[in-house]
Write a structure and sequence with these properties.
The protein is α/β, with parallel strands linked by helices. It has four domains: about 10-140, 3-Layer(aba) Sandwich (Rossmann fold); about 160-240, PAS domain (Beta-Lactamase); about 250-320; about 335-455, Histidine kinase-like ATPase, C-terminal domain (Heat Shock Protein 90, 2-Layer Sandwich). It has 14 helices and 17 strands. It has helices at about 20-35, 45-50, 70-80, 95-105, 120-155, 180-185, 190-195, 240-285, 290-315, 325-335, 340-345, 360-380, 415-420, 425-435, and strands at about 10-15, 35-45, 60-65, 85-90, 110, 160-165, 170-175, 200-210, 215-225, 230-240, 320, 345-350, 355, 385-395, 400-405, 440, 445-455. The strands form four sheets. Strands 2-1-3-4-5 form a five-stranded parallel β-sheet, sandwiched between helices. The protein is rod-shaped and about 145 Å long.
Length: about 450
């Protein structure tokens, strides 16, 4: 940006419209005395005057007595060429009405030749005023360009934007077709509530097009103030009809998936319960006690898996089960299935809620079934009473610690234990490996079996 510094000697291109050379010399002398370094030309006819306007000078000093062109014509020639050059009139006679007339036509100043001492100051003032006008015009041009860009942006935006005043009148709306204006009118209720509470709102609203089509708009409304402090409401609305339809379709698909999974779990549970019942009936018909026990063990294992599918069918989450709730129910049902044995043994539980996916639930269910059944069968021989603890912990939701402990007779000697390992305990070892876990057994005042494994997210 050009900046004038008129406190030091300043180069100045001056065009002097003057018939007398000596008067022009006096003007130049005053300019030098005021600190200017004038580069000047004197002209006394219209042709030379017009020729010297390109390139335009910094200032024009014109004698009011020159007739070709006169000062009025000289100003007109400047205007025709769109030049904004300070134009100072100098007159040899005092004529206030003529001075006012020239100022109205666009002259920067009007001086009398017998007061030429004021010329330097008048030129400085005219140059500064002209620079201020130039900067103001430049700022105004920038503002208009910015306004034009903003309006073009808003008019081409697919988003509906509107402004309302406190009387609910529409101050501005982009894409201002009749249909858009009708949309804004349909959404007046939402605007009223924001004016009343002062709080911004975010709603999905239905509007009807001229063709009868219903569209969903996501609308955000907020209050702001204009330059005078008056309250205005701004609104921005986006057409989300397609997104809403997609979301509805996805919700329907997820609901259908849930129904399908629920039906699968229900059928699997029924099939497993049928197999369990058949095994139980077959066991009742067998004369051999060992064979009956083997079938009942198999029946309990199948029932433990059926419980998982039943819990998944009845739960909100069809892709996972709460292991804590499952362990509570399985333990109680196992105690009931052992009849009188379960009546003299106390069940104690300390169970955290631990959600697990299906691929971890089945091994956990079978492990719990084997460990609890083992304690019920072997920990309390004869009429011995005691206690079985079922514990489940999962600190920070990462590592699961599952424990079944009893205060019964404990493990047999190591040699006898290794040589007579039952199918159930071999199943525990295998399933612990499938979980990527570790099985720890401690026999001190009973048997404590602890399975630790990582929980999958």
């Amino acid at each position: 940006m050009k900046r004038l510094d008129l406190d030091r000697e300043t180069g100045l291109r001056v065009l002097i419209l003057e018939g007398r050379q000596e008067d022009a010399d006096l003007m130049v002398r005053e300019l030098r005395r005021a600190g200017f370094d004038p580069q000047w030309r004197r002209v006394d006819n219209e042709a030379d005057y017009v020729a010297r306007l390109s390139p335009p000078p910094d200032v024009i000093l014109a004698d009011s007595g020159v007739s070709h062109p006169d000062t009025r014509r000289a100003l007109q020639l400047l205007e025709e060429r769109g030049l904004n050059v300070p134009f100072i009139v100098l007159s040899g006679t005092v004529d206030e009405e003529a001075a006012l007339g020239m100022m109205r036509l666009g002259a920067a100043d009007y001086l009398f030749k017998d007061r030429l001492a004021r010329l330097g100051q008048a030129v400085k003032h005219a140059l500064l005023a002209n620079e201020l006008r130039r900067l103001k015009g430049r700022a105004e041009d920038g503002r208009q360009a910015s306004d034009a860009r903003f309006l073009a942006f808003m008019q081409h935006s697919p988003t509906l934007v509107f402004i309302k005043d406190e009387s609910r009148g529409v101050v501005y709306v982009n894409n201002a077709s009749g249909e858009v204006a009708d949309f804004v009118a349909q959404m007046d209720a939402g605007s009223a509530s924001v004016f009343e509470t002062g709080d911004p709102s975010r709603t999905i609203e239905e509007v009807t097009t001229a063709g009868g089509e219903v569209r969903q708009l996501l609308c955000v409304r907020f209050l702001f103030s204009d330059a005078e402090g008056g309250r205005l409401l701004g609104g921005v609305c986006v057409d989300v009809t397609e997104q809403q339809a997609t979301e509805k379709a996805l919700s329907g698909a997820l609901a259908a998936k849930d129904v399908l999974l629920s039906e699968v779990h229900h059928r699997v549970k029924n099939n497993l319960q049928t197999i369990s019942s058949l095994l139980n009936m077959q066991a009742d018909l067998l004369p051999d006690a060992a064979a009956r026990q083997a079938l009942r063990d198999a029946q309990r294992r199948i029932h433990s898996m059926a419980l998982i599918h039943e819990q998944m069918n009845g739960g909100r989450e069809l892709d996972g089960v709460d292991l804590g709730e499952y362990a509570r129910r399985l333990a109680r049902e196992l105690f009931d299935s052992f009849g009188a044995v379960g009546e003299r043994i106390r069940l104690r539980m300390a169970l955290d809620p631990v959600p697990l996916a299906m691929d971890q639930m089945i091994p956990c269910g079978l492990i719990l079934n084997e460990l609890i059944s083992n304690s019920l069968k072997y920990a309390f021989p004869g009429e011995r009473a005691g206690e079985i603890l079922v514990s489940l912990r999962c600190p920070e939701g990462r590592t699961v610690t599952m424990t079944v402990a009893d205060n019964g007779v404990g493990l047999p000697p190591a040699a006898a234990w290794n040589g007579s390992k039952s199918l159930g305990l071999r199943i525990v070892d295998i399933l612990t490996g499938q979980l990527g876990g570790i099985l720890d057994r401690q026999s001190a005042g009973g048997l404590t079996s602890t399975v630790t494994f990582p929980r999958f997210a």
